[in-house]
Amino acid sequence: MNSDEILELRDRHIGGSLSVSYRRPLHIVRGERQFLFDTEGRAYLDCVNNVCHVGHCHPRVVEAAGKQMALLNTNTRYLHENIVEYAQRLSATLPGPLEVCFFVCSGSEANELALRLARTATDRRDVVVIDSAYHGNTGAMVELSPYKFDGRGGAGKPDHVHVAPAPDPYRGPFRHGDPDAGERYAEGVAAQLTAAAAAGRPAAAFLAESVPGCAGQIVPPEGYLRSAFEHTRAAGALCVADEVQVGFGRVGTHWWGFEVQRATPDIVTLGKPIGNGHPLGAVVTTRAIADAFDNGMEYFNTFGGNPVSCAIGLAVLDVIEDEGLMENARVAGERFQAGLRELAASHPIIGDVRGLGLFIGAELVRDPDTLEPATAEASAIVNAMRERGILLSTDGPFDNVIKIKPPLVFTAEDADRVVSELDSVLAGEAFAVS
Amino acid sequence: MNSDEILELRDRHIGGSLSVSYRRPLHIVRGERQFLFDTEGRAYLDCVNNVCHVGHCHPRVVEAAGKQMALLNTNTRYLHENIVEYAQRLSATLPGPLEVCFFVCSGSEANELALRLARTATDRRDVVVIDSAYHGNTGAMVELSPYKFDGRGGAGKPDHVHVAPAPDPYRGPFRHGDPDAGERYAEGVAAQLTAAAAAGRPAAAFLAESVPGCAGQIVPPEGYLRSAFEHTRAAGALCVADEVQVGFGRVGTHWWGFEVQRATPDIVTLGKPIGNGHPLGAVVTTRAIADAFDNGMEYFNTFGGNPVSCAIGLAVLDVIEDEGLMENARVAGERFQAGLRELAASHPIIGDVRGLGLFIGAELVRDPDTLEPATAEASAIVNAMRERGILLSTDGPFDNVIKIKPPLVFTAEDADRVVSELDSVLAGEAFAVS
């Protein structure tokens, strides 16, 4: 099938609410390491796929999957060693109290279950979230995602949801250089917790991406999450860290984003990278919360925790460890950020460069003082880079943040190439900022 | 690892709300066709796994998965032929108007999306469901599942949910032999739709398993679903058929359970058997409903519709067709039901035998007049059969229905063997009914 035929069939048989990337859509037929290949064999450097975490089609993951698929794939009501071995290995990457695992099929299912856990354990219903956050595509998750309910087609904020300001030190009220910015933003969480309780609807949880992604690849200022978690616990609510986008070593220095901020959640949710593309997700929590949830109602997930999914999850952990991918994320990420910062010096459209490891954002503005978002420019750049064989995307409330979150096998040389091509694209007339 | 070690690690690292099957748990390490094998190589005839639909570890499915996993597994924002080919093939099995597909990772995600579709398309919120129904493990699905909210640990019926009586011609108010039973039960749906509207909360949807499973493998009386759908449409609501448990040819005469009742839904949800164990689900609906949902808000599912999942989905369709599994379900299912009916003649504990194809229930009662449920006996029988190498389970509001829903490669000879072993177990003193 050629691209036109595929597009025609998509029009007929696929819902219109699923968009296609780039002005000139890509027809991708093969993936390997940090590269995707189109029908003509042209390679594209993938800077955006945080799902194929250890590299597209990693042979160890493919082999583990194929071997287990041929042997057994059944549910978790029979005993099997994969699920317990995986639970043990996964728990070992997390702080001590997080030791009880629930396996599901996606990040959305993980956040759904986290919400059920928090509500059952606290006997409360409301939730505090961060502005511009995205937590999933189910009904309840859209309701907890300002990114969705405040966006196009959104129905606005439901009463049981309380939105704290995004801890954005570039565009928010407390900025780079303010040593108290972290505390100040955490007070925004405290204010929502207090207001919710005062309104007679105390929060069950503070649900936060450890490093906010859809909000524009925001790195919260020092102390933010730790302090926000303290306020949350003081209010009798549970701390839920959504690591669906950022987890599994991507931040370079730690397995988990919350560790960078020396904060420990009560519940952590995992998705996207966990199975290198295989539909897998997990919730890890404390024994006390898991026991409170065990109130007589069975939690059964048909596919979650099956021997194939767990074999894949184990292979992903093996590869991250054996290939030193966390350290690679640190090294390649530092090089990437340094290159982007250098670019920013000559291209004032790059207003801010931020990130942790291989989770990076470059925010584009038309004016460094007003921070007027360079939204159209961001889109033009991403499309121009695609023509040069480099895949990027945009995000953030103004869609003006270039989003970088490649497979962790991405190299420092790849980073140099992206920076160099970006330099050349930005030198084009269209992107001059007055 | 031996069973004790696995159980110990489950206690430590897995939530207690996940139960293990059978008094003496099974440690299963291999699967093939309709058989599971334990660590000692003992074979168990699997009469309950409606997920590994075309047989455990079917080589064509395993091969399709492995081949595509090694080639490409990325998201649906690039063009790829697998998703459109699969959408086309899947639509072709469904009645004409059902032609737009959304791919997700599980039946729960499918029902979640169906609810979002129905609510957006109707701008209404409430839902009519059938008593004892189960629709998934997310928050909203637990709220729509009397099986859960009325069960242990349940919080009761939410205000936005309206429960119609289960169309159970054995235990319900309108029974076998009543030619109007279907209409009467459908009037129960109409009554809920009317009451909801009168209370100022008109229903967005009537959500029903085409052939109710957790309610006890109920085959609704003739005309029920068709008439219930007419009432639903007259009330301005949408008809959602949950085919997660029963779909893909299991009923023997048709691809879908609703076809048996000559009813066509507006939205159909698919899960469990769709990927033979791979985490996959789908929602198929009309162009009009899909377009109404396309209101500006993107629906993106990270894993849903990826090339691997679609390759697996396609392989499952191929196997069903090439191996004539629908017809096999009809033949083996008829033999199974005939055998059970014969047993019922000599064992009055078997109060009712019902089913369609290889979706069968045998309801056990202590008294054929009062229908007192033989719950403990059902559990004892299932455990005794497990010792004889045959896997069954129980379900229904009283947990007294022996549930039969094997992989579709199950044979008439397998059915004979189960019936014969069951005869022998029932001849034991423990199961005598006065």
Strand fraction of chain A: 15-25%
Q: State the shape of chain A.
A: globular
Structural domain tally of chain A: 2
Note the run of SSEs of chain A as H and E: HEEEHHEHEHHEHEHEHEEHHHEEHEEEH
CATH superfamily of the largest domain in chain A: Type I PLP-dependent aspartate aminotransferase-like (Major domain)
The two chains with the largest interface, and their residue counts, are: A-B, 102 and 102 residues
The N- to C-terminal Cα distance of chain A equals 46 Å
CATH topology value of the largest domain in chain A: Aspartate Aminotransferase, domain 2
Helical residues, percent of chain A: 25-40%
CATH architecture of the largest domain in chain A: 3-Layer(aba) Sandwich
Main sheet properties of chain A: 7 strands, mixed
**Tally of contiguous helical segments of chain A:** 14
Low-confidence stretches of chain A: none
Architecture overview:
2 copies of one chain form a homodimer. Chain A has 434 residues and is α/β, with parallel strands linked by helices. In chain A, 38% of the residues lie in helices and 16% in strands. The first copy, chain A, is built from 14 helices and 15 strands. Chain A has a 7-stranded mixed sheet with strand order 4-10-9-8-7-5-6, sandwiched between helices. In chain A, strands 1-2-3-13 form a 4-stranded mixed sheet. Chain A has a 4-stranded antiparallel sheet with strand order 11-12-15-14, with helices on one face.
Any key phrases for this structure?
homodimer; Aspartate Aminotransferase, domain 2; 2 domains; 14 helices
